[in-house]
Amino acid sequence: MKWIYEIILILFSLSLIGFFIDFIHHNRKANKIAFWLICVVWLLQTVFFFYEVFGEKGFPVTNLVDSLFFYSWVLITLSIIINKLFKIRFIVFFIQVFGFFILLLYFAASTTHNQLNDSIQFVHEILIAHITLAIVSYGFFTVAFLLSIMYLIQYRFLKRKKGLKWMWQLGDLKQLDRYSFIAISIGVPLLLIAIILGVVWAYFSASEFYWFDMKTIGSLLVLIVYVGYLVLRLVVGYVGKPLATYNTGAFLILLVNFFLFSTLSNFHF
């Protein structure tokens, strides 16, 4: 069953990223792909659901672990209905984030309850996915930072109306700003999923987990800072130099979290 759990989580994660990109960029193609991915997740969950009802002869709400599965199935069902009928993208994304968290809790709890060896391996794979997604998100944030630095350099030379010919190879200012925005739009959902995986791993592993651990606080701070970037762009309406400067500062916070807070953490490397 473990490999089916992993497939469901991968599809669910890709769906979350797609819905987030659609929410930020109004990308209907991303929405369509994400919708079909979440439909596949819902279909697989529905198969499990009917197996529990008719195969095990019981409705899956008799204990806390089974209730988590049914809870996540209800949330995914509601998100699909809302997405098709009401077109409220913001609430759909957050319903699915919460549904992903509940489903991940169910998978971890069910493997822990059933088989010890599978539980240890599954929890370890959650840790690997947590670290991998976090580092990949940092990669996108790094690309966004470099694009912002290129923007600021290009902006400075254009302002002074001087510079070498090779400076024009840095790219158009609007293009640099847009690509930085896209990189952060991908990095944010990846980091969000990584944090959710990290919380679930810490809860089911033997490691002591502290919400006030420096690495935990640092990761949440990085997420909040980059969400702040999206708010400034989408809600406040900032573009160009102010956001490039903000992004540069955000990346410095990321570096502090990665190199300094990791050494001060009680359970992170």
TrEMBL record:
Molecular-function GO terms, alphabetical: heme binding
PANTHER family, per the entry: HEME EXPORTER PROTEIN C, PROTEIN HEMX
Membrane topology: Multi-pass membrane protein
Name of the featured protein: Cytochrome C assembly protein
Cross-referenced InterPro entries: Cyt_c_assembly (IPR002541), Cyt_c_biogenesis_CcsA/CcmC (IPR045062)
Gene Ontology biological-process annotations: cytochrome complex assembly
Recorded superkingdom: Bacteria
Domain Cytochrome c assembly protein, first and last residues per copy: 62-265
Localization (cell): Membrane
Annotated keywords: Membrane, Transmembrane, Transmembrane helix
One family name in Pfam for this protein: Cytochrom_C_asm
Gene Ontology CC terms: plasma membrane
Record-annotated membrane-spanning stretches: 6-24, 33-51, 63-83, 90-108, 128-158, 179-204, 216-236, 243-264
Native organism: Oceanobacillus profundus
